[in-house]
Amino acid sequence: MIKPPKVIVNPAAGSGAAGRAWPGIEAKLRAALGEIDVVVTAHGGDETNLTRQGLEDGVHHFIAVGGDGTMNGVLNGIVADGQPVNDQVRLSVVPAGTSNELPRALGVHGDVDGAIAAIAAGGERRFDLLQADCLDLDHKDHRHYGVLAISWGGAAEIVHRVNKSRFLKKLGGRFSYYANTLSVIMTYPNRLCDLTIDGRKMEGVLHYAGLICNLEMLGGGMRLAPNADPTDGIADFLFFRDIPRKDIILQKPSWLFEGHHIEHPKVDFMRGRNFTVTGSPDALIDADGETIGHLPLAVKTLKQVLPIIG
């Protein structure tokens, strides 16, 4: 007997917006899909364990309702050893969080009805994954998967502070992001790192942040990795060297939202499949908007291993 889709809902996503919207979303999902099995998270990180429990129960289709963090938690429940745990497992997303970058890439950003209609239609796509090996926050070996981007340094610090700033998030997700971005830009120190990209070594590089991107649009619609293709098996690497901070602060918003940042002489933009980074153990690492640990970091691009319905 085929198990119904398991819908994993994070009511705290979007500063509680997902919880408020859930009754309407649930009604639409049931109307479009019929029987569904709903579980609601109580704490951060529940998504992964609930997904693994569903797999043990024979579920093959998982629908994440929330933001990027909710999606990533489900993703890390269905993937192990560089591939889905079985050939039948599938992921879907319904956008209901502060940031919904995978739905944006799927063409349904901010469109709950469109996302549900696409899930019901059953069309399948396969996206690349980024496999990250690092030290977790307890400095133990950790493997984590992302479909949006893996970042470290200033970029990861911004997301970490946004996720911790409950008061600012109550004033709005975008306000919290901009306020914390300004704070990090003003105070985060440049650090040295050794970097290897597909065997090419760069040693002792002074830098502000690095982002290994799978998607073109990230961070609330910023075109951070122009023309990135999440199906080509190659990641797009964005590297902010020791860029003067005034060169970031004084830019027009279009600098990032239209992708003009890659024209700056202190910003490198290149492509690769395998990356290693060593540097300050104080440098945080982020995957899809979730803080996962500290340097050192190794990232491998896995071509078209993530099956998505929607």
Which short descriptors sum up this protein?
single chain; 310 residues; alpha+beta; Rossmann fold; Tumour Suppressor Smad4; 2 domains; six-stranded antiparallel beta barrel; 10 helices; 36% strand; globular
Secondary structure: elements and pairs:
Layout lengths: L5 E4 L7 H17 L3 E4 L5 H11 L4 E6 L1 H11 E2 L2 E2 L5 E6 L5 H6 L5 H10 L2 E12 L5 E6 L2 E5 H11 L1 H5 L2 H15 L3 E7 L2 E14 L21 E7 L3 H5 L4 H4 L9 E6 L1 E6 L4 E4 L2 E20 L1
Parallel strand pairs: 1-2, 1-3, 3-6
Antiparallel strand pairs: 4-5, 7-8, 7-16, 9-11, 9-15, 10-11, 10-14, 11-12, 12-13, 14-16, 15-16
Helix pairs in contact: 1-5, 2-3, 6-8
Description:
The model has no long low-confidence stretch (mean pLDDT 92). The protein is globular, with a radius of gyration of 19 Å. A hairpin with a 5-residue loop joins β7 (124-135) and β8 (141-146). Helices cover 31% and strands 36% of the residues. It has 310 residues and is of the alpha+beta class. It folds into two domains: 6-122, 3-Layer(aba) Sandwich (Rossmann fold), CATH 3.40.50.10330; 130-302, Tumour Suppressor Smad4 (Sandwich), CATH 2.60.200.40.
